[in-house]
Amino acid sequence: MKKAWILLPFLILTGCAEENIRRLDVEMYNADGDSLGTIKLEEQAKGVKLNVDLKGLPAGEHAIHIHDNGKCEPPDFKSAGDHFNPENKEHGLLHPKGAHSGDLPNLIVGDDGKVKEELMAPQVTLQEGKKSLFTKDGTSIVIHEGKDDGMSQPAGDSGDRIACGSISKDKKEE
């Protein structure tokens, strides 16, 4: 019986660990419904790391944001809602009052339409809580046609939404 009591905390902790998602792939789609690749999310001590590996995007600099709704309905992806902003801050990484939690550095897409970058989202988590990307309505990642100027409200004057991917604990395809 003593051995069972010793193992019990380990079994409980193991069960809890299975509920905590530390890594997640987000499939990104364009307005035609074509897959552009994945953005791998990984929980880190300082936020969530995004490993971006996409192709088929227009060359140049593009804004990328986390949005407050997990729906990605083409062609305009307006269903993704506004930027993820649980602390009601202003938009822009350059804003003196602080940025939305969903504001990220711009992506640089090569002439071949490919981008491989690592970004950090320091104000979000994959764990439970106010800054969790796993909200009741879900969240999403949106790429815009232009770059984010880092200050303009509400979205950095970044233009139309050209790609979207839903962030969800549910691994099923939508």
TrEMBL record:
Q: Where is the Superoxide dismutase copper/zinc binding domain?
A: 37-167
As for family, the record states: Belongs to the Cu-Zn superoxide dismutase family.
Q: Which CDD domains match?
A: Cu-Zn_Superoxide_Dismutase
Q: Which GO terms describe its molecular function?
A: copper ion binding; superoxide dismutase activity
| Described purpose of this protein according to its UniProt entry | Destroys radicals which are normally produced within the cells and which are toxic to biological systems. May play a role in favoring mycobacterial survival in phagocytes.
Q: Which reactions are catalysed by this chain?
A: 2 superoxide + 2 H(+) = H2O2 + O2
Q: Name one Pfam family in it.
A: Sod_Cu
Write the record's keywords in alphabetical order, separated by commas: Copper, Disulfide bond, Metal-binding, Oxidoreductase, Signal, Zinc
Q: Which cofactor does it need?
A: Cu cation; Zn(2+)
**Protein known as:** Superoxide dismutase [Cu-Zn]
InterPro entries associated with the record: SOD-like_Cu/Zn_dom_sf, SOD_Cu/Zn_/chaperone, SOD_Cu/Zn_BS, SOD_Cu_Zn_dom
Q: Which organism is it from?
A: Cytobacillus dafuensis (Bacillus dafuensis)
Q: What is the lineage of its organism?
A: Bacteria, Bacillati, Bacillota, Bacilli, Bacillales
User: SUPFAM superfamilies from the entry?
Assistant: Cu,Zn superoxide dismutase-like (SSF49329)
**Cofactor comment text:** Binds 1 copper ion per subunit.
Q: Which Enzyme Commission numbers does its entry carry?
A: 1.15.1.1
Looking at the record, which segments are called Disordered? 145-174
